[in-house]
């Protein structure tokens, strides 16, 4: 139910109408059930495609932003994004950057709707209360809880919200970037660090609060490293004792002044210029 049925029901609600999923579960007619199930599968494939595109576009926006002005929070908007998927994208970026992330989509001519995913150090509902009290005309409506929230603002106020959001979180954290407590799922053997297993992890999503994407760790040789996008570390990693070299990326990471390190990572898939490769998404380096 969790891995197969849940994501497909969820996709129907995000992209169209959740009643399709309810009908599939309640019908007594096997032919109707199959037809509804086929529609749910189509929704899920469409959700995956749109999510992948939005995440790629969001990363492109982040790569153009300043490290100094956006290090406490990220706020992103694109008029082409689907408001039913912004929460998934915000959750993924929050995990990658370890900061609160607000992702907005167009909602009518004048308004945009956003979804925020936060970190344990920032109670996002309380923070939005503070912002609303001191900026009464900025947020039109909002609601949520400690780790997630939704809100609506005028499209013309996005730049103002972006700055206010970052500034309030910076003050909330007393100008100190939080240190994330990192729990892992243990070590992987060399033969388990594969593109097939990365695909298996991707297919088991969507991941989120209380159902986090697996993180592994190991001792790696750092074969090569270089800075890309002015602030991210692109590297080649080789598990100690193995000969296979893997691509890796660490966001907001300075060059590493050693040749071996204990690295926590996620198995991810990198698609570039029509090629699909395994990439280790580096979460922590010790």
TrEMBL record:
Record domain DHHA1: where: 72-170
Pfam families according to UniProt: DHHA1, RecJ_OB
InterPro entries: DHH_sf (IPR038763), DHHA1_dom (IPR003156), RecJ_OB (IPR041122), SSDNA_exonuclease_RecJ (IPR051673)
A molecular function (GO) term: nucleic acid binding
Matching SUPFAM superfamilies: DHH phosphoesterases
Gene3D superfamilies given in the database record: 3.10.310.30, 3.90.1640.30
Domain of life assignment: Bacteria
Hydrolase in keyword set: yes
Entry keyword set: Exonuclease, Hydrolase, Nuclease
Domain RecJ OB: 184-283
Name of the protein: SsDNA exonuclease RecJ
Source organism of the structure: Bathymodiolus azoricus thioautotrophic gill symbiont
């Amino acid at each position: 139910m969790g891995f197969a049925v849940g994501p497909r029901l969820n996709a129907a609600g995000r992209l169209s109408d959740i009643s399709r999923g309810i009908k599939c579960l309640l019908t007594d007619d096997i032919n109707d059930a199959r037809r509804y199930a086929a529609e749910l599968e189509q929704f899920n494939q469409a959700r995956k495609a749109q999510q992948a595109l939005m995440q790629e576009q969001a990363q492109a926006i982040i790569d153009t932003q300043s490290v100094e002005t956006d290090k406490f929070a990220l706020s992103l908007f694109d008029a082409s994004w689907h408001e039913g998927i912004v929460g998934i994208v915000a959750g993924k970026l929050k995990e990658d950057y370890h900061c609160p992330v607000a992702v907005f989509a167009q909602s009518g001519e004048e308004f945009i709707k956003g979804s925020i995913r936060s970190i344990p150090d920032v109670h996002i509902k309380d923070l939005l209360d503070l912002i609303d009290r001191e900026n009464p005309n900025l947020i039109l409506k909002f609601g949520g809880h400690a780790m997630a929230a939704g809100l609506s603002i005028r499209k013309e106020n996005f730049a103002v919200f972006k700055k206010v959001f970052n500034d309030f979180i910076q003050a909330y954290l007393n100008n100190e970037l939080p240190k994330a407590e990192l729990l892992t799922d243990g070590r992987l053997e060399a033969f388990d660090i594969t593109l097939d297993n990365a695909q298996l992890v991707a297919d088991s999503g969507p991941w989120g609060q209380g159902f986090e994407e697996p993180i592994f760790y190991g001792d790696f040789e750092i074969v090569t490293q270089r800075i890309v996008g002015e602030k991210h570390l692109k590297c080649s990693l080789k598990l100690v004792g193995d000969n296979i070299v893997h691509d890796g990326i660490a966001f907001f990471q300075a060059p590493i002044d050693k040749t071996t390190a204990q690295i926590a990572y996620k198995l991810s898939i990198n698609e570039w210029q029509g090629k699909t490769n395994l990439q280790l998404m580096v979460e922590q380096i010790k």
